[in-house]
Amino acid sequence: MLSFLIQIANEFEREHGYRPNVLYISPQHFKILQSALSEIKGLEALTRFLGMEIVLSDESCQPHLAWSTIEWKRAVVV
Q1: DSSP state of 50
Q2: Residue 14, domain extent
Q3: Rounded to whole angstroms, what are the CA distances from 57 to 60, 61, 67?
Q4: Tell me, what DSSP letter sits at residue 77?
């Protein structure tokens, strides 16, 4: 999962010229990500590690990235 996120982050940066700062991810994929990064405890630490805010959405079949000017403080469950 982490290698996939790195790949799509690099693609995003090549396409747009800047790094993404928002990760849209399904709850199921989020659990996989948490498991893969089990040494990182807590949502805030995970957000800092990734350098992105996390938006959980049942509509996100695949993780995807975006850039937002909003300075979010917490993940949002949609």
Answers
A1: H
A2: 2-77
A3: 6, 9, 16
A4: E
Residue 39 has φ and ψ, to the nearest 5°, of -75, -15
Written as six digits, the tokens of 54 are 């996390």
Short-list 70, 76, 10, 74, CA closest to 48: 74
Q: What is the mean pLDDT of each run of 10 residues along the chain (78 residues)?
A: 94 97 95 95 92 91 91 54
Residue 9 CB neighbours (<10 A) = 18
Provide the pLDDT for residue 26. 96
pTM of the entire predicted model = 0.84
Domain count, the chain: 1
